[in-house]
Inverse folding.
DNA sequence: CGCAATTTTGACGTAGTTCAACACGTGTGG
DNA sequence: CCACACGTGTTGAACTACGTCAAAATTGCG
């Protein structure tokens, strides 16, 4: 499961063209200083950052486990889910390359949800105890950590805004496509395409819709020439129309 | 508007029986050290924390303004709202004594929503620039800040969970009552009572329901002996039933 | 007290759900 | 190689929870 760690150097991001470069990663501000600095943190830095590969459908962590690490996604996508007392899952979010997973467990030190790889993925794992120890010694690092946390909660906020607006199904779906486009377009290359790595079921679950409703809305969007659907790949043909529907 | 600041001493919390004591305030961990410490932060500490009174319906800050301060609520309650392009407001949350407002503007340094007092309120204002300056000098303070941020985003998370679960209107309302009870019961004294300082319109708006639907659900809860409604005061008569409905 | 704002109740319409059938891969085993 | 099961996605028809519109009841404020 574990590949070679990225000690004292940028993690190697070249083994797959979908790897996000470090300078686009939200973890960079705390990852690089730690791994390059020749400061009094020599002891800890050896093990702070570690590259981990995950196969499709494998858990990065599970709801209820104690917090050990936070993760930056290098490649691949993840879904975040919670158990409901009925036997099914509730999808509470998706995460894309360059984003952070697990930071929302810093309080109360327990992962509040599952993180599951939607495709073959690769993450940089950062041990929290060691991160906090390092950051105690390096004030700049702490400020970076504060910055990271505020940025990530901003992203989360943005994602939830769409949901709490709770307008029509069409507006939810339009907003979802635009949100994914904004966060994930770098990876696919083509600027007007969105790759929905998750299943329709997962999307519908996240949006609080039935899979049938989602399907109908997507079909309608295609009929009205807003998008072209090729399985999981969505091509956006009328960005303005989606924006208008999304109500942003 | 401004009362005497709370320099080098706990803010006085005695002028109103609804004042939350400092030891129950989320800001305590960064407020007390700054205001009591005789460290090299003498210059800034004079102006870091300041008590501010707000009258009903007044803005603590407005959406779009640059971030200057974050606030701890001493007494009173606030609603957080956003403008929609149509001329109305969307309520995105409520805040109670002991909780923090404005911290979610740390990135991107602009308040993303309005904060409006629902009743005569009083807050402790903490200047962000000075807080960050102080925290740079005092590592412990930074860790407290990290802790504060993670705790508050945990509270926000909990509040939104209810919404994204997006089950029935009944389950939303039940979960809302329980959430308020948990966060606000200290203030009212009586443990099985919840004081809804906000209007029904505000609650409905927040939950993504129509005021009529909310009203009907509350009436139904009363008819089924789950609660007793006395205007804004809700007495909980069957906690278990609400929990079951809320799906938690 | 009296008027306006807020809240509740009633009757009816609609968006989205539910249930059910079908279509399209993809993998498995005979 | 086909036959079949199974997961995933699409489409159709009936149902229902919530929204809309309207009016009555209650509360709050000058």
């Amino acid at each position: 499961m574990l590949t070679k760690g990225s000690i004292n150097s940028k993690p190697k991001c070249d083994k797959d063209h979908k790897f996000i470069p470090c300078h686009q990663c939200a973890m960079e501000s705390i990852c690089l200083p730690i791994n390059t600095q020749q400061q009094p943190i020599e002891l800890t830095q050896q093990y702070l950052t570690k590259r981990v590969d995950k196969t499709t459908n494998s858990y990065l962590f599970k709801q209820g486990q104690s917090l050990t690490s936070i993760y930056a996604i290098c490649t691949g996508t993840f879904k975040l889910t919670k158990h409901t007392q009925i036997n099914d899952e509730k999808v509470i979010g998706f995460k894309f390359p360059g984003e952070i997973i697990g930071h929302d467990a810093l309080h109360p030190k327990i992962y509040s949800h599952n993180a599951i790889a939607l495709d073959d993925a690769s993450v940089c794992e950062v041990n929290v105890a060691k991160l906090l120890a390092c950051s105690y010694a390096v004030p700049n690092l702490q400020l970076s950590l504060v910055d990271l946390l505020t940025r990530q909660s901003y992203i989360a906020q943005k994602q939830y805004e769409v949901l709490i607006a709770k307008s029509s199904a069409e507006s939810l779906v339009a907003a979802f496509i635009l949100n994914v486009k904004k966060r994930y377009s770098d990876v696919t290359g083509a600027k007007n395409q969105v790759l929905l790595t998750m299943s329709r079921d997962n999307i519908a679950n996240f949006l609080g819709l039935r899979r049938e409703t989602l399907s109908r809305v997507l079909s309608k969007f295609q009929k009205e020439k807003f998008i072209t659907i090729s399985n999981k790949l969505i091509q956006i043909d009328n960005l303005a129309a989606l924006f208008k529907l999304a109500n942003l």
Q: What stands out?
A: The longest helix of chain A spans residues 139-165. Chain A has a mean pLDDT of 81.
